[in-house]
């Protein structure tokens, strides 16, 4: 029986593609282990699937000054030692990495033991963790054709992102009951990423009275970002994070407002949900979400409202325009040639296994 180690963490975007692969890997008879951080979001998500989980030390590698820059390199070194020990113990045939800084020790440890590694890069340009890992990888998967110019030619393959198949079978009636909504008013779903977005949350809550005149609102606002004063507002349902009912909520949503993390927007487009993307500002990031969003806008899948342009007026106008033109966006997404990402990546995994 073949054994695969999956790794990736820090945010849900570094975990959900791995989760999407797990059922198919199990069908093919793989033994699956997961290596993540001791306390990252990936730990609970993977343990809930009853997959053996191993935590290692992890540190963030920053491009900006932070006092932790002095301690985190030592945590990374400790993580590499722990990962090497796990690689010797687990002895997998292949490693699949979805990125995030916890993946760096795992990939480097696998390379040291000559275990083949496949990396997946979701964004238009590789993040720092994957840049460190690419030399150790046998294959680098990516979402966007534009990304190929930033990757080693012989390693790079456009695969798209694995999408959780359960998202495709949501139940609108179940979602109506879950949220306490009526069936005679359209629904806006707001997603700020697994950690939530203060900017998006504040913007939505700032226009909520006006928004609720025409829409009902599902708000996934992130851990510790609920507003108790809005708990009893009719037509508004807020949640920190949703797992089990997410497919139902997507099925109910007429339009979606989201950050522009690559995995999130790939899921949204696969579900053909008209969407308004509010990418993380270049002032607070390396600008990858802006590139992702503009690519989807160019293809006709999305509207984009950058943070610098975000006002109550621009937000309300964009939501109304999105809803009015929703059929145009739906048609563009339905006419796109979605890659069968799961099958493609499974083939690469099988090709890459250590013989």
Automatic annotation (TrEMBL):
It catalyses: di-trans,octa-cis-undecaprenyl diphospho-N-acetyl-alpha-D-muramoyl-L-alanyl-D-glutamyl-meso-2,6-diaminopimeloyl-D-alanyl-D-alanine + UDP-N-acetyl-alpha-D-glucosamine = di-trans,octa-cis-undecaprenyl diphospho-[N-acetyl-alpha-D-glucosaminyl-(1->4)]-N-acetyl-alpha-D-muramoyl-L-alanyl-D-glutamyl-meso-2,6-diaminopimeloyl-D-alanyl-D-alanine + UDP + H(+). Transmembrane segments: none annotated. It is a peripheral membrane protein. It is found in: Cell membrane. Residues 4-134 form the Glycosyltransferase family 28 N-terminal domain. Pathway: Cell wall biogenesis; peptidoglycan biosynthesis. GO terms for biological process: carbohydrate metabolic process; cell division; cell wall organization; peptidoglycan biosynthetic process; regulation of cell shape. Keywords: Cell cycle, Cell division, Cell membrane, Cell shape, Cell wall biogenesis/degradation, Glycosyltransferase, Membrane, Peptidoglycan synthesis, Transferase. UDP-N-acetyl-alpha-D-glucosamine binds at residues 11-13, 164, 194, 289. Its main location: membrane. Residues 187-338 form the Glycosyl transferase family 28 C-terminal domain. GO terms for cellular component: plasma membrane. InterPro entries: GlcNAc_MurG, Glyco_trans_28_C, GlycoTrans_28_N. One of its GO terms (molecular function) is undecaprenyldiphospho-muramoylpentapeptide beta-N-acetylglucosaminyltransferase activity. Its EC number is 2.4.1.227. Pfam families: Glyco_tran_28_C, Glyco_transf_28. Gene3D superfamilies: Glycogen Phosphorylase B (3.40.50.2000). Belongs to the glycosyltransferase 28 family. MurG subfamily. PANTHER family: UDP-N-ACETYLGLUCOSAMINE--N-ACETYLMURAMYL-(PENTAPEPTIDE) PYROPHOSPHORYL-UNDECAPRENOL N-ACETYLGLUCOSAMINE TRANSFERASE, UDP-N-ACETYLGLUCOSAMINE--N-ACETYLMURAMYL-(PENTAPEPTIDE) PYROPHOSPHORYL-UNDECAPRENOL N-ACETYLGLUCOSAMINE TRANSFERASE 1. Cell wall formation. Catalyzes the transfer of a GlcNAc subunit on undecaprenyl-pyrophosphoryl-MurNAc-pentapeptide (lipid intermediate I) to form undecaprenyl-pyrophosphoryl-MurNAc-(pentapeptide)GlcNAc (lipid intermediate II). This is UDP-N-acetylglucosamine--N-acetylmuramyl-(pentapeptide) pyrophosphoryl-undecaprenol N-acetylglucosamine transferase.
């Amino acid at each position: 029986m073949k054994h695969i180690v999956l790794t990736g963490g820090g945010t849900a975007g570094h975990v959900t593609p791995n989760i999407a692969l797990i059922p198919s890997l199990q069908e093919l008879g793989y033994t699956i282990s997961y290596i993540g951080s001791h306390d990252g979001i990936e730990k609970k998500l993977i343990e809930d699937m009853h997959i053996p989980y191993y935590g290692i030390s992890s540190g963030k590698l920053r491009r900006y000054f932070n006092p932790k820059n002095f301690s985190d390199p030592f945590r990374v070194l400790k993580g590499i030692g722990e990962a090497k020990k796990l690689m010797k113990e687990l002895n997998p045939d292949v490693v699949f990495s979805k990125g995030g800084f916890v993946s760096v020790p795992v990939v480097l440890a696998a390379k040291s033991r000559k275990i083949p590694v496949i990396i997946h890069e979701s964004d238009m340009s590789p993040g720092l963790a994957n840049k460190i890992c690419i030399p150790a990888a046998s294959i680098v998967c990516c979402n966007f054709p534009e990304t190929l110019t930033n990757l080693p030619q012989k390693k790079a393959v456009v695969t798209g992102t694995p999408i959780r198949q359960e998202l495709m079978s949501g139940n609108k009636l179940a979602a109506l009951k879950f949220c306490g909504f009526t069936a005679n008013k359209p629904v806006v779903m707001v997603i700020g990423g697994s950690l939530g977005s203060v900017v998006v949350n504040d913007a939505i809550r700032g226009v909520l009275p006006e928004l609720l005149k025409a829409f009902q609102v599902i708000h996934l606002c992130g851990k510790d970002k609920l507003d108790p004063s809005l708990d009893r507002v009719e037509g508004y349902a807020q949640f920190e994070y949703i797992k089990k009912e997410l497919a139902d909520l997507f099925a109910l949503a007429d339009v979606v407002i989201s950050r522009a993390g690559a995995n999130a927007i790939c899921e949204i487009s696969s579900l053909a949900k008209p969407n308004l993307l509010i990418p993380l500002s270049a002032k607070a990031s390396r600008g990858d979400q802006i590139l992702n969003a503009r690519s989807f806008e160019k293809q006709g899948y999305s509207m984009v409202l950058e943070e610098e342009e975000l006002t109550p007026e621009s937000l309300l106008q964009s939501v109304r325009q999105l809803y009015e033109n929703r059929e145009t966006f739906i048609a563009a997404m339905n006419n796109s040639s979605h890659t069968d990402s799961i099958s493609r990546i499974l083939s690469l995994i099988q090709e890459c296994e250590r013989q």
